[in-house]
Amino acid sequence: MCAWIRWVLICLVVIVTGDVLADDSRSNIVMILVDDLGWADIGCYGADLHETPHIDRLAEQGTRFTDAYAAAAICSPTRASILSGKYPARLDFTIWHEWAKSPPAATRELIPAVSVDHLGLEEFTLAEALKAVGYTTLHVGKWHLGDAAYSPEAHGFDVNIGGTHWGAPTTFHWPYNGLFGTEQEEWRYVPDLPFGEEGEYLTDRLTDEALRLIEQTQDGPFYLNLWFHTVHTPIEAKPDDIAQYEGKLQRDFHHQNPTYAAMVHSLDENVGRVVDKLDELDLSENTIIVFTSDNGGTIRKYAGQQVTSNHPLRSGKGSLYEGGIRVPWIVDWPGVTQAGTVCDEMVCSMDLYPTLLSMAGTEGDVGHNRTVDGIDLTGLLRDPTSSLERKTLYFHYPHYYSTTTPVSAIRDGDWKLLEYFEDGHTELYNLAEDLGEEHDLTKSMPDQAQSLHQMLVDWRESVHARLPTKRD
Fold first, then answer.
1. Closest Cα to residue 229, out of 338, 140, 147, 156?
2. Looking at the domain assignment, is residue 12 inside a domain?
3. Which residues fall within 8 angstroms of residue 164, CB to CB, at 6 or more apart?
4. Is 388 exposed, middle or buried (0-12, 13-18, 19+ CB in 10 A)?
5. According to the model, what pLDDT value does residue 48 have?
6. pLDDT at position 101
7. Which of 60, 300, 389, 410 has the fewest CB atoms nearer than 10 Å to its CB?
8. Which H or E run contains 88?
9. CATH no. for residue 108?
10. Cα–Cα distance list, 116 to 97, 119, 179 (Å)
């Protein structure tokens, strides 16, 4: 063999070996997404009734964000933004799956905008990007991004346990099935959870499945979506936990629902179980954990009692006031995030796409990236006192909900403006001085309101956002 051929072969071996080593050294990623968890529902964000020592400890180990947002005030669009890195309005996915497919009867002033009912297969997802560089991709829990044709398996996940097109289980108690709904009842179930037993609780069981997958893929790298159904309705918890919070409840607490508090308690226990398993397997130092929610807390009543309070934020799920879109967000990136740090920069769920790809050392798909709206936050995670060049976020919900009529919103620095489509009125707030959005400044600061409104209009045009229409 001539010398130059031998040299080429040696170089190829070095290159291939280098790639293998690079893959082996990539951090595992665990994304814990909670359904409907409010910004103030956990201890380190100011909860009074709720106790969340394990989640609080996660924040003590990493970085906690104060001004983190879900891309939408309801579930499916936010989940689509996480996996694609795009604004829901750009995806034409602005309402949850069931209502996009079968919208409610038309009884309101406006006809809501048309929305797709799935995350399109043309989107190059987070799972596909990570799988392409050697990750085993795992999904456990709620999916809610389309029917079987748009399942986790169709979007790059090697394993899917429990993911369906439904947004909520009929019950959190084994066997997790039954008739769901009050008008057009349907039989719902959570698949891939066989051989349960009486007294088994869904949040525990999903964690059991996630821990089993971690054990099976511990040689890594792995990417795990642990997307809990909790704390979404039905508001159901373990009797002993409910009793604990009934005994703790005080009249001056903002949180007044002991059953919901018990659901948060179970969530916290299971976050602790994940962390403990990573410790047990010596994976903690090579595993990134992201903890967040898909929208703000639900403030409607369930079984005659308000589900939660987002105090000091205004309103809740469905609304584009802060209570509907501001969410808890914690990142623990071993060796990078500094323990116990707090970051006040605005971040959004669509930022997880470029951020996690950057953490994994890959850029993803060049074509897809041309329309990605999220930005890479790794610099911010390294130095939480630094600033992002982006100063503006946009939100678009052209539908009705119990907390809102069709609306868009913009946050630009400390300023926030909402535009309601029924009558076209706008509301202007300075969040630095008025976090609870109690004092509308539109009339006293018309130039500021007009400037923000024009930015909002321009953004909607740029992403081809669909708008509600007037009835004939």
1. 140
2. no
3. 143, 144, 151, 190, 191
4. middle
5. 97
6. 79
7. 389
8. helix 88-91
9. 3.40.720.10
10. 8, 8, 26
Classify residue 409: in a domain, yes or no.
no
Report the DSSP beta bridge partners of residue 397: 407
Residue count of the chain, please give it: 472
Distance between CA 249 and CA 416 in Å, rounded?
35
CA distance 280 to 369: 37
Contact yes or no for 277/230 (Cβ under 8 A): no
**Which helix (H) or strand (E) element contains residue 356?**
helix 352-359
33 within a domain of the structure (yes/no): yes
Which pairs count as long-range contacts for 434-442, CB under 8 Å and 24+ apart, including other chains? 435/312, 435/313, 435/322, 436/312, 436/313, 436/314, 436/322, 437/313, 437/314, 437/321, 437/322, 438/314
Residue 431, classed as helix, strand or coil, is coil
Task: Quickly list DSSP for 245-303.
Answer: HHHH--TT-S---HHHHHHHHHHHHHHHHHHHHHHHTT-GGGEEEEEEESSPPP-SEET
Please write down the HEC assignment for all residues of 151-167: CHHHHCCCEEECCCCCC
Q: Rounded CA gap, 121 and 147, in Å?
A: 12
Q: Omega of the bond prior to 312 within 30 degrees of 0, cis? A: yes
Closest listed residue to residue 173, CA positions, set 262, 244, 304: 262
Q: Smallest Cα–Cα separation from 345: which of 292, 381, 372?
A: 381
Q: In the chain, how many domains are there?
A: 1
Q: Does residue 73 lie in a domain region?
A: yes
Give me the tens of pLDDT residue by residue for the chain, a chain 472 residues long. 343 433 333 233 333 333 333 455 799 999 999 999 999 999 999 999 999 999 999 999 999 999 999 999 999 999 999 999 999 999 999 999 999 977 766 688 999 999 999 999 999 999 999 999 999 999 999 999 999 999 999 999 999 999 999 999 999 999 999 999 766 689 999 999 999 999 999 999 999 999 999 999 999 999 999 999 999 999 999 999 999 999 999 999 999 999 999 999 999 999 999 999 999 999 999 999 999 999 999 999 999 999 999 999 999 999 999 999 999 999 999 999 999 999 999 999 999 999 999 999 999 999 999 999 999 999 999 999 999 999 999 999 999 999 999 999 999 999 999 999 999 999 999 999 999 999 999 999 999 999 999 999 999 999 999 999 998 7
Please, which residues bridge with residue 137 across strands? Answer: 223
Q: Cα separation of 450 and 417, whole Å?
A: 10
User: Residue 338 in contact with residue 63, Cβ under 8 Å?
Assistant: yes
Total-model pTM: 0.94
Which residue type, as a one-letter code, is found at position 401? Y
Cis status, amide bond into 175, omega within 30 of 0: yes
